[in-house]
Amino acid sequence: MKTLKTLYENIGLPRLIIALFFILLIVASIMLGFSPAALFSDVVRRWLMYGTLVLAMVPGIQSGIGLNFGISLGISSGLLGAVLAMEFAFVQDWNALYGAGSPWMTLGLALLLGVIFAAIVGTLYGMLLNRVKGSEMTVSTYVGFSIIAFMNIVWLSLSFKNGELSWPLQGQGLRNTASLSGSFGGLLSNPDVVQSTQPEWLHWLAFKVGDFTVPLGLILVFGFLCFLVWLFFRSKMGIAMSGAGENQLFTTSSGINVDRKRIQGTAISTVLGAVGIILYAQTYGFLQLYNAPLMMGFASVASILIGGATIRRAKISHVLIGTLLFQGILVTALPVVNEVVEIGTLPEVLRIIISNGIILYALSKTKGENQ
Amino acid sequence: MDNQYLLSMSNITKEYYGNRVLKNVNLNVKPGEIHALVGENGAGKSTLMNILFGMPVIFSTGGFEGQIYLGGEPTTIDSPHTAMDRGIGMVHQEFMLIPEFTVTENIKLGREIGEHNALSKIFGPLLDKMNWKQMSSDARKALDSIGMMNIEEYAKVAGMPIGYKQFVEIAREIDKTGIKLLVFDEPTAVLTESEADRLLEIMRIIANKGIAIIFITHRLTEVMAVADSMTILRDGEFVARKEVGETSLAEMAELMIGRQVEKLVDDDLLGERKLFDDRIALEFKDYYVDMPGERVRGMDVKIRTGEIFGFGGLAGQGKIGIANGIMGLYDTEGEVIAFGKTLDLSKLGEALRNGLAFVSEDRRGVGLLLGESIERNIIFSAMQINDQFLRRIGPMKILDKANADKHAKNMIRLLDIRCTGPSQVVGSLSGGNQQKVCLARALTMVPKILIVSEPTRGIDIGAKKLVLEYLTKINRELGTTIVMISSELVELRSLCDRIAIVSEGKVFAIMKPDDPDAAYGLAMAGVREEVAS
Fold first, then answer.
1. Contact between chains at A237 and B397 (C-beta distance less than 8 A)
2. pLDDT, tens only, A267-294
3. Of B13, B169, B239, B431, which has the maximum CB count within 10 A?
């Protein structure tokens, strides 16, 4: 009885409810005749697609800035890196020059540019957050919204030659949604893309076992990123950062500059956001500009909270569990709901209820600094 | 019961969670007398007053034993409101005034005088029109009666000098009808010398009106100057009731400090060793720390290598600030010299890198990462400052888990930390064990100078003895210089070689542990002439 109670306390009520709901949906969808393999393929794909964006929450929480609603900064940096890389690849005609190597180079350049932008923006953002200690989450929410609006102007005013990116008729401004099919879309996760564009020896990147898709390339990349973050928080710098997030006075008295650690944490979070959106776009096959990333911060925040993180402590396991539950529900709910009731927007409604509800729940559970 | 006393609290006993803080205490106050309640921090003065005022904290922790008599009649006071009704008032140490209100409004707060009007006849007296004229004149009368002719009753409280605020508080209590007993809780602590003198005069004026006063203070000179009689408490016990005319400053000091029989450190641990006046481990030169509530204001002291040096003194006098300044938590001025090297305290971690280590007095706030494991807490500083417990993998320095684990287990055994293992979360340990973790973290630094601040605060007597003995042991065996800051004189006197008494941010006197109790009492109270003689 006692172990059962501690187990319950460890899992927590919201996760228990959501996990049960998830299981219920899976059972329902299988009973309704959906292919389990296809369903699980979808769950896994979405899990990996959003995973890095949720992982980006960890350094923010650990370094003490709380839930990084301003992850849109990282997302915008990543998107900017991606469109610049694609434009560069188009202008240089990499497809003709390098063939199958071209999408890899574009992906690499996108990541490189995205990381550089994110590192710079993240550092500045960290400096801003040090000036608003105590209300980081409010400020980061507004920063997150503002940068999207600002980037809308940027997307509108860029004039690119790449027809995949620019509005077909205007010659100026970028599209709402740009297809990545000629570029790095699906390179790590889509068996069809991998089989048709890549040489034989790379076919392990994504393959099918019966109806079940194994996006091995994406699994490895995401796993590696998780490992890096895990390793980082076992390093001298990472431990100092965790300390800064947990107890500023303690860390200061151990001779560590807390403000600097917070800036580093924010910058790393932003960089992971940039990497995350590129991996997201890669999996999705499209680059979504303008207002598409507006609420992505909320989805990431909700995911890690469902996973069991608090606004002061987060672990890799919280990322994995939280993303699986959150995305899993959305994936399974869509076909089930469509079958049961004919309201097309219900999964979207569900997403909003779950994400905002769980954020509210987590915030109500937090204890103030002085308690 | 003898009717000559206005207030008698007899045989009061109070326990907090099995911990006796008051044992059979008696307090008797005559009408119109100024009665001083004297004792060190933690002697039980506040608890006694909480009982007198029927504060909820008393009843939520199981009430108290004993009886209170008012004017000879047995009385129960079960809430602060009852206390007020019975004519007992309090002048608080922290002012309970609303800054944006005028003096009159503050004095009359909650007891406003109203006139009926059409609205209030329907909706009740809350909508009465204020009778400002009557209220102002009442306030004026109250102010005049304590000789405060120069405070205008229509001025706002905000921006007034602290002394004036104190007088407004007093006026508010005086204005209450039927006030018989006023408690002054360390009223002079925040006042300048002239304001304090003025306050003492006012207390006399009030007492002459027949109102009894209980005067809580540390300052023995003030007691001598103004009080008629006094009750002395020590460690929750009633020591004596004395008429001021029949006693001396020295006797009072001695009664207040008292030598406890119990030895906190065994004598065989305190072996003889030689200390040299020319081998200085740590020196403060005109040292200032800007720590609110514990300011250090120009401290000069030299601590010898291998010495156990104590800093004692009352709360708020600045002894706590000494360590927090070196730790880099508050801004400092002046010089701190460790083994001949002047430390640049504006650089974080400077002291740690120069062989100093700390155990903070604020265990939960500064000393520990409550959400982390024992192991992480123990190795944190040594890892960050000395690069211990790390392995190099490429450009990264990664935690050497095996090594850290071994060290943590070692420390757990050495200090007898009661836990399930090095991975237990520190927040779930008892106070004593948390303190040992703090100590383990400092010792992991292998310091040449160890600064411990309030090492036994909030831990039980067994753990207390162990911690103190361990400090003595590392001093004798490793030659570590120890600077110990503590509010408990007994503790300091049982193991320190010298003890500096800190008063108003400065070293007031440096004393030997076997100096007489009276000398300590006087030094703590800041009475210089007597110490010299």
1. yes
2. 999 999 999 999 999 999 899 988 888 8
3. B169
Neighbours of A39 (CB within 10 A): 21
Q: Is the dihedral of CA A326, A328, A331, A335 positive or negative?
A: negative
> Tokens 């008393």, residue?
B58
Strand A177-179 to strand A286-288: parallel, antiparallel, or no bridges (unpaired)? antiparallel
* Rounded-to-integer distance, Cα B413 and Cα B428, Å: 18
| pLDDT tens digits, one per residue of B110-164 | 778 878 777 777 777 777 788 888 888 888 888 888 777 778 888 888 777 777 8
Interface test with B, best of A241, A248, A253, A367 (most B CBs within 10 A): A253
pLDDT of residue B530: 45
Q: Is B354 on the interface with A (CB under 8 A)?
A: no
| Contact (CB<8Å) B380/A243 | yes
Q: Do the domain assignments include residue A3?
A: no
CB-based contacts of B73, cutoff 8 Å, min separation 6? none
Q: SS3 for A238?
A: helix
| Domain assignment of residue A356, yes or no | yes
Look-up of token digits 């209590």: B173
pLDDT of residue B63: 81
Round to whole Å and give the CA distance between B278 and A52. 62
Confidence of residue A368 (pLDDT cuts 50, 70, 90): very low
Q: Provide the 3-class DSSP secondary structure of residue B457.
A: coil
How far, rounded to the nearest angstrom, does the alpha carbon of residue B46 sit from its chain's CA centroid?
A: 11
Structure tokens at B161: 């000098």
What's the gap between Cα B482 and its chain centre?
A: 23
Whether B328 and A255 lie within 8 Å, measured CB to CB: yes
Instruction: List the strands of the sheet with B237-243, edge to edge.
Output: B73-75, B65-70, B7-16, B19-29, B237-243, B229-234, B34-38, B212-217, B181-185, B88-91
Report the predicted TM-score, pTM, of the whole model to 2 decimal places.
0.75
A252 chain-B contacts, CB cut-off 8 A: 327-329, 348
Yes or no, beta carbons of A239 and B376 under 8 Å apart: yes
Q: Is residue A108 part of a domain?
A: yes
- How many Å apart are CA B394 and CA A323, to the nearest integer? 31
CA-closest candidate to residue B441, choices B358, B326, B348:
B358
Could you give the CA distance from residue A85 to residue A112 in angstroms, rounded to a whole number? 9
pLDDT of res. A370? 32
A367 falls in which pLDDT band (50, 70, 90)?
very low
Domain coverage including residue A204:
18-364
Q: How far apart are the first and last CA of chain A?
A: 31
Flag if A240 and B384 touch (Cβ within 8 Å). yes
Integer angstrom CA distances of residue B266 from A300, A328, B495: 60, 65, 9
Minimum distance, in Å, between the CA of residue A238 and any CA atom of chain B = 9
- A172–B contact, CB cutoff 8 A: no
When pLDDT is cut at 50, 70 and 90, the band that residue B279 belongs to is confident
B365 lies within 8 A of chain A by CB:
yes
A236–B397: do the CB atoms touch at under 8 Å?
yes
Is it the case that residue A214 has pLDDT exceeding 80?
A: yes
Structural domain contains residue A354: yes
Residue B354 Cα distances to A251, B328, B330, B437, angstroms: 18, 13, 19, 22
Helix axes B401-415, B374-386, angle to 10 degrees: 120
Q: CA neighbours within 13 Å on the CB side: how many for A326?
A: 33
CATH number of the structural domain spanning residue A164: 1.10.3470
pLDDT by residue (tens digit) across B329-373?
888 999 999 888 888 888 888 888 888 998 988 888 888 888 888
Number of folded domains in chain A?
A: 1
**Residues from chain B contacting residue A257 (CB–CB below 8 Å):** 348
Instruction: Read off the tokens for A173.
Output: 């401004």
